[in-house]
Design a protein that fits this description.
Layout (H helix, E strand, L loop, with lengths): L36 E5 L6 H10 L4 E5 L15 H14 L4 E4 L11 H21 L3 E4 L9 H15 L9 E5 L12 H10 L6 E5 H6 L7 H14 L7 E3 L2 E2 L10 E2 L8 H9 L15 E4 L8 H12 L18 H26 L19
Parallel strand pairs: 1-2, 1-10, 2-3, 3-4, 4-5, 5-6, 6-7, 7-10
Antiparallel strand pairs: 8-9
């Protein structure tokens, strides 16, 4: 019987070579679906999860939070326990909220000329970024700071270098730094679009971008109230920063008139900018989120005051209505507000106590005794001898 012939295949076949599969392109997040994103700054009091639930109940599809106390250097732990962060990320995904914006501490001054203040600001900003990464935030917004006695050029250069130092040992991934424009009070830099553009350009390698506040723009002298002023401002944003580098707007009306250079927010449609102007802004094709003319995922986030229970819900509803998207807005929970009547009474009492303390301190500083309130005597009553 003839033995079967076996041959050893030694010829190289290119098809046999191992070819690693290319890394898949990262998919854009679900919130970048071309729909306009509207939200408000929500409170993390009690739990980070509370901020998400508040956004849901207020009819938002996006939100902004503080990751710690915004007016204290030591506003809490610099890190968030992973169990808390994981629960936050999971619940946010369930609710489909995005983008998530973290607003950095107000005390941070990245443009500071004083070395100690600058070092403290860099560390505080790095802590904000670490907490933002832990929570799965999309953006961290920071004010560029104040120049003090220094020049604008030096302050801009210092702010750029400070952000670089804060991000030096971090892997930001999809987290982006947004530098916010200012109203221009005092020595604050970033009130002029050219200054903000210079900072953003200096951070181009980390894909930093800008967050524009409507109240700050108006107070800085950009007349977004009039149709022709809005068109001129949009064109200037595009020629300096680039509209594609403005993924977030802070939607705030202004208590301050045009060019007043003071940051005072007002309810949507109730201030110097007005409802008609906000309708034009929210419906402007280049300022929206449509893939054709706008920027997918662009968000308008209110930072409006809550003077009375329900103000937060009403401001969110106003943005949806002025955008012409009232029928597409997520359902808000009837009667919900982050400010309850009980909390308002407590805040009012604290405000009265604070004003009383301030009066006492001014009186002591002046070296006089506080005036006693005269007791009113009832008519017809005399002191017996």
């Amino acid at each position: 019987m003839t033995e079967p012939q076996h041959t050893l295949e030694t010829q190289f076949d290119p098809e046999d070579e191992y070819r690693p599969e290319p890394e898949p392109e990262p998919q854009p997040p679900a919130w970048m679906d071309g729909s306009l994103r509207i939200g408000i700054h929500t409170s993390i009091a009690g739990s980070y999860l509370n901020a998400l639930e508040s956004a849901r109940k207020l009819g938002c599809n996006a939100l902004q939070i503080f990751s710690a106390s915004p007016r204290m250097w030591a506003g809490g732990p610099s890190r968030i326990p992973e169990a808390d962060a994981a629960a936050f990320r999971a619940r946010r995904e369930e609710l489909g909220l995005g983008p998530l914006v973290v607003h950095a501490n107000y005390l941070i001054n990245l443009a500071a000329a004083q070395s100690m203040l600058r070092a403290r600001s860099i560390q505080a900003f790095q802590d904000e970024l670490v907490r933002g990464l832990s929570l799965g935030a999309d953006f961290v917004v920071v004010h560029p700071g104040s120049r003090g006695e220094g020049s604008v050029a030096q302050a801009v250069a210092t702010a750029i270098e400070s952000v670089k130092q804060a991000t030096k040992r971090l892997r930001l991934g999809s987290l982006r730094v947004l530098v916010e424009n200012t109203a221009g009070a005092g020595g604050a830099i970033g009130s002029r679009l050219e200054e903000l553009a210079e900072i953003v350009a200096g951070l181009n390698l980390m894909q930093a971008a800008a967050c524009l506040d409507t109240a700050h723009l108006f107070a800085a002298g950009y007349d977004i109230r009039r149709p022709e002023g809005l068109e001129a401002t949009a064109a200037q944003i595009d020629s300096t920063i680039g509209l594609e580098k403005v993924p977030v707007f802070h939607a705030n009306d202004s208590k301050i008139p045009l060019g007043g250079r003071i940051d005072r927010h007002e309810h949507i449609g109730k201030g110097k900018i007005g409802a008609e102007a906000f309708a034009r802004i929210l419906r402007h094709p280049r300022l929206g989120a449509s893939p054709v003319h706008g920027l997918p995922g662009r968000a308008f986030l209110a930072e409006t005051p809550i003077d009375d229970p329900g103000d937060d819900r009403r401001n969110v509803a106003a943005l949806w209505e002025l955008a012409g998207l009232k029928d597409q807005a997520p359902a808000a929970e009837k009667g919900f507000s982050m400010l309850t009547p009980a909390v308002k009474r407590k805040l009012s009492a604290l405000a009265r106590f604070s004003r009383s303390r301030q009066r006492q301190q001014r009186t002591r500083a002046a070296g006089t005794k506080p005036a006693r309130r005269a007791r009113s005597k009832k008519p017809g009553r005399r002191k017996r001898k």
